[in-house]
Design goal:
The structure is a single chain. This protein has 690 residues and is an alpha/beta fold. Helix content is 45%, strand content 13%. The chain is built from 28 helices and 22 strands. The strands form seven sheets. It has a six-stranded mixed beta sheet, sandwiched between helices. Helix 7 runs parallel beside helix 8 (183-205), helix 18 (426-441) packs parallel to helix 21 (546-565) and helix 26 (628-642) packs antiparallel against helix 27 (646-657).
């Protein structure tokens, strides 16, 4: 996929779309990028694959390998090393670049002729599927079923993964999406397909004969409908008004339009990049969501634009944490936030979340802070959530297409803790004490987890330490600061947004305050580290208490050590973080007041402190993630009743109350691609029993 040169710095308003900032030179690639999503992602797309493997592949993220680059970079000097590890198949380009692209593609050994936009059609797509099959695997029988281009881009995150699944399953594959097709119809069809796949995969794993499978199918289908879990990708456009007022003049801001979840006019064409900004941006976000849902063989949905009031309320909530804050005020602000975001909650979104194994959210808004109707705890307590920032859209597109390989940390994990706060600072002293506890608690329980603590009081010291130790996980303990509209780290008494590391570790944990604020649309170091090469970055939205943060980090390391020693509970580092974040609700509650903490640690029940009794016995099987705080209060209240202190303890829950501080963290990037259980083992676990 080639196009005319892209601007790698932030483009001016006339050179990019408003408000999300897609360089118009990159926008010209959209027709070709969408076309590429209809080509095979791997050779498995050509052949009949066992049903159990189709289900297991949802853990593998088999992404299309699409290379997006300027025509000037389409040459051996730039691509030589890259193409040594890949098979160049076809080049797609605008008609004006055809002659040059054809010459360069031929020199680089592409298998198929270069295709200009004017030739992109169902007939060309069918011919290219056939040509790729004959070129790479001519001796293997080819799957039947039509391939055709998607018509409705707004529904493509649902329809395109379903059509690929349908081709493998032998179902009708022709697109049936008409101009008046609703999201509800397409969602129902995709969900039925996922449930059908899960049912057949289970019967296959059980080794059921054809007769037994026929007899059990209906009952198994019902059971799988209740337990179905699939990856879900969501596109949530929207820009913080505070950012827009800085980035764009009033006339440009007036031209921006909120987008509905479904738009029948949002269709594919070779000239889609020539549409108004809001339609071009929509097509780019829809492409990213579809790319993700196809890779995971899951579900994808576009959501309507996040209302400006939601960003304004979020900014107020984040500012509230900068001063002594009350539980009641934060509860009120969270309620206002939910009210502002209420238009998002379609029946399809609620049904998708109920069946999601985890969420990948393409947005600059922390969807995980919202509470789904019927729940009492925010969404990030219900299931793992990871974010792909949208701003600027050019960077998001580049990062989405980079398709980094999955990383497995099943054999060893090296953690480097970089202390950037002087020990003379009370926060720095408490941070070191917390990591001393982590070393004493986590590392001795694992032969393969190593925690290295270093003093890095200057940026140069940090760079040297990372270069020397080459960690898998880099923890940066530093102060966070705001410089204008930028959220930076303080290292050596100076704010930094660019760490300049020669080798960026796969995982970066920012043990610092408000390094990922979202309400003001700030340029955040959390997002910038993804651009520098980190695969996943964990950051905080608000100022956090160093002691509570230390508790979270200690527990995170403990569970990493446990999984590393006795694998099987968690597949990815995202799963570990979600367990730690959610199960920390009891500590959030106890930190509400000294009285609560004293009751939890100094009074006993069954000869054990209340906290130990809760963690080891009473909470087991009784805490529902969507109601984690409500359920935790109920169980603690029962313990207090047995002591004759029920009314007093319940009163402490409300006055002075507590803050769900553990939920104000965001994991950005691809933590779902960092495996603790090797992918090969996940596949073996899904293999049918013989």
């Amino acid at each position: 996929m080639v196009y005319s040169p892209v601007l790698f710095e932030r483009p001016a308003a006339e050179e990019s779309t408003v408000p999300h900032g897609l360089a118009k030179t990159v926008a010209t690639a959209l027709p070709g990028l969408w076309y590429c999503l209809h080509l095979p992602a791997s050779l498995c797309d050509f052949v009949d694959v066992d049903i159990w493997m189709l289900k297991a592949a949802q853990n593998l993220r088999l992404e299309h390998n699409i290379l997006l680059l300027p025509i000037d970079c389409f040459e051996e000097d730039v691509l030589g090393r890259y193409l040594q590890h890949h098979h160049p198949v076809v080049t797609i380009c605008p008609d004006g670049l055809l002659a040059e692209a054809r010459q360069r593609a031929s020199a680089l050994g592409f298998a198929l002729p270069t295709t200009p936009y004017s030739q992109l059609s169902d007939a060309t797509l069918t011919a290219q599927w056939k040509a790729i099959h004959e070129h790479f695997i001519p001796d293997l029988p080819r799957l039947t079923g039509d391939v055709s281009l998607t018509h409705r881009l707004d529904l493509a995150p649902l329809t395109l993964p379903h059509r690929r699944l349908a081709r493998q399953m032998g179902w009708p594959t022709a697109e049936s999406v008409a101009q008046d097709t609703s999201a509800r119809e397409e969602f129902s069809q995709a969900l039925r397909g996922q449930n059908h796949l899960s049912t057949l995969a289970r019967l296959e794993r059980d080794g059921a004969s054809y007769e037994e499978a026929s007899r059990r199918f209906r009952q198994t289908f019902k059971e799988e409908a209740a337990r179905l879990r699939v990856p879900v990708a969501l596109g949530l456009p929207g820009t913080a008004p505070a950012y827009a007022s800085i980035a764009y003049d009033s006339e440009l801001r007036r031209q921006t339009k909120p987008q509905p979840a479904v738009s029948p006019d949002d269709t594919w064409s070779v000239t889609l990049h020539e549409r108004p900004d809001h339609m071009v941006e929509r097509a780019a976000i829809e492409f990213a969501v579809t790319h993700q849902s196809v890779a995971s063989s899951g579900l994808g949905l576009m959501l309507p634009t996040m209302p400006p009031d939601a960003f304004i309320t979020l900014a107020e909530l984040e500012r509230h944490f900068h001063n002594p804050h009350s539980s009641a005020a934060i509860r009120r602000l969270l309620t206002r936030l939910n009210e502002a975001a209420n238009p998002l909650w379609s029946e399809e979104l609620k049904a998708a979340i109920q069946r999601a194994s985890h969420l990948t959210v393409f947005s600059d808004f922390p969807l995980g802070l919202l509470t789904m109707p019927g729940d009492s705890a925010p969404l990030c307590a219900r299931l793992p959530v990871t974010y792909r920032p949208l701003q600027p859209l050019t960077r998001m597109m580049q990062q989405q297409l980079s398709a980094p390989p999955a990383i497995s940390l099943d054999r060893s994990i090296k953690v480097l803790v970089a202390e950037c706060i002087p020990v003379s600072d009370p926060v720095g002293r408490m941070s070191r004490q917390g990591w001393d506890i982590a070393c004493e608690t986590a590392a001795p329980n694992s032969a393969t987890l190593t925690i290295i603590q270093t003093e890095t009081l200057t940026l140069e010291a940090l760079q040297r330490s990372v270069g020397e130790h080459r960690p898998d996980i880099l923890v940066i303990s530093a102060h966070g600061t705001m410089v204008g509209n930028m959220a930076a780290l303080v290292i050596g008494d100076e704010p930094h947004l660019d760490l300049g590391l020669d080798r960026m570790p796969p995982v970066v944990i920012l043990s610092a305050c408000h390094v990922a604020p979202r309400g003001s649309g700030a340029v955040a170091i959390t997002d910038l580290l993804l651009r520098e090469g980190a695969l996943a970055v964990l950051g905080t939205q608000v100022p956090v208490d160093v002691r509570r943060n230390a508790m979270l980090m200690v527990r995170f390391m403990v569970y990493l050590a446990k999984e590393n020693t006795k694998p099987g509970q968690f597949s990815t580092i995202l799963d570990v973080w979600h367990h730690v974040q959610t199960s920390n609700a009891v500590n959030d509650i106890f930190d509400g007041s000294p009285s609560l903490r004293a009751w939890a640690t100094r009074t006993t029940i069954n000869d054990r402190p209340v906290l130990v009794e809760f963690m080891t016995s009473r909470a087991t099987g009784r805490i529902r993630p969507p109601h984690v705080y409500e359920d935790t209060e109920r169980v603690l209240g029962e313990i207090a009743d047995e002591q004759g202190q029920g009314d007093r303890v319940r009163n402490w829950f409300r006055r002075p109350g507590y803050v769900p501080e553990s939920l104000f963290y965001v994991f950005a990037g691809r933590p779902d691609r960092i495996h603790l259980t090797p992918p090969r083992l996940l596949i073996e676990q899904a293999r049918p029993r013989r």
